[in-house]
Amino acid sequence: MGLFVGVASAVIIAAGVGILLAVILATGRHEGGPGAPGGPPDGRRFVGDSFVVDVDRVLPWVIGLGIVGVALLAVVGWLAARRASRPLSDALTLQRHFVADASHELRTPLTALSSRIQLLQRRHDRGQPIDETLVELRRDVGAMTALLTDLLLTAEGAAVAPERPVLVADAVRQAIDAMEPLAEDADVRLAADIESDVAVEVPATTIARVVIALIDNAVQHAPAQTAVTVQVGRQDAFATVRVRDEGGGIRGIDPDRVFDRFARSGETGRRRGFGIGLALVRQVATRYGGSVDVELTSPEGTVFLLRLPAAGAERKRTRPTS
User: Fold this and answer.
1) Rounded to an integer, what distance in angstroms lies between the CA atom of residue 175 and that of residue 121?
2) Is the distance from CB of 81 to CB of 87 less than 8 angstroms?
3) 170, 194, 199, 320: which could join 232 in a potential S-S bond, CB 3.0 to 4.6 Å?
4) Which domains does the chain have, with CATH numbers?
C-alpha cells in the first residue's frame, strides 16, 4: 500500500509540474531576444536576456492544478485505505460465518446430548439399566469430536477426501441415531428406507452432519405423531438422500430461498431456527460436486433431495463463496 501511494502521488505531482511548466513556457516571453527593441540584428541573444512570466495568466493554473492535485491525492488515499481494509473485512466476514456455522452445527448434538443425559437420569432414578445409555452418550461425544474436526478441516473451503469410499447408508444410520432423542422429544418417528449401498468420496462425518441438518429441519416442521423418512438410493452417477416430512409445506418464502443464509420459513412453535442449517447443506454439497434441492413441497409435506457423486464418478469440486 505504501508503494502504491508513493508511486501514485509521484505521478500526480510530476504531471502537475509538467502541466505548469508547459503553461509557463506557453505564456511567458523573452525580453531582449530576437526582434525586441535594441536586440542584435542577427537574432542572437545576450546572456543577460530575461524570461518574463505573466502572473495573472499563470496564477489561475497554479490554483487549479493545486486543487486537482489535492483531490487526486485524496482519491489515491481513499483507494489505498479501501484496498488495505478489504482483506480484513473479508477475514472478519469469514470469521463470523465460521462462528455462526460452528455454533449451529454444535447446537443439535448438544441438544441430543442433553436429552440423553435426562434419559440417563430418569433411568437411574427408576433403577433401570443404564449401560446402553452410557454407550450412546460416549458415541455422541465421539460424534461431536469428529464434527469439530470436520468443521476445522473444511473451514478453508476445500473438499477433504476420505482414504476410501464411504457407504452413504452407514452415515445416514449414524445421523438417524444422533437425531433419535430430538425426534422423541418432538413426538416424531424417524424411519429409514435404504435401497442402495452406494458409496461416495465424502467423509462419513460430513455426510452425517449434512443429513442431520436435513433431519433436524424436517423434525422442526413435522407435526407430532407423524414420521420423517430418510431414503437412500442411486440415480445415474449420484447417490441420493431424500428426507421427507409430513408437515404443511414451505410457506412464507420461495422454496429456492430456503438455502440462503439466515432465510427462514414460517416457524412451527418448536425451537427457533436461525436459517443456517440448510445453507450449510448446500455449501457442503456444492463443495463435493453435488447439490441439494426442494424436490417437492405441498400441504402434505416436503421432500429435500441431496445428491452426491458416487465413488468413481466424474465430478467437479468447487470452492464455496462467502
Assistant:
1) 24
2) no
3) 194
4) 2-41+51-91 (no CATH), 157-309 (3.30.565.10)
Q: Which DSSP symbol is given to 226?
A: E
* pTM for the whole structure: 0.57
Query: Is 313's pLDDT higher than 80?
Result: no
CA angle 259, 305, 203 (to 5 degrees): 85
Residue 280, SS3 per DSSP: helix
* pLDDT beyond 90 at 196: no
Distance CA 62, CA 48 (A): 27
Please report which confidence band the pLDDT of residue 316 belongs to, taking 50, 70 and 90 as the band edges: very low
The secondary structure of residue 321, as a DSSP letter, is P
Strand partners of residue 302: 245, 297
Return the minimum-mean-pLDDT range out of 72-76, 135-139, 238-242, 312-316: 312-316
Q: 73: Cβ–Cβ under 8 A, 6 or more apart, which residues?
A: 9, 12
Instruction: Give the three-class secondary structure for 212.
Output: helix
Which residues 6+ apart lie within 8 Å of 210 measured at CB? 280, 281, 284, 285, 306
**The three cell numbers locating residue 268:** 412451527
Polymer length in residues for the chain: 322
Q: Are 196 and 231 in contact (CB under 8 A)?
A: no
The model's pLDDT over 254-299, given as tens digits with 9 standing for 90+, comes to 888 888 766 655 555 455 444 457 888 888 888 889 999 999 999 8
Asked whether the beta carbons of 220 and 270 are under 8 A apart, the reply is yes
- Angstrom distance (rounded) from CA 179 to CA 213: 10
From residue 67, give the alpha-carbon distance in Å to each of 61, 63, 71, 286: 10, 6, 6, 52
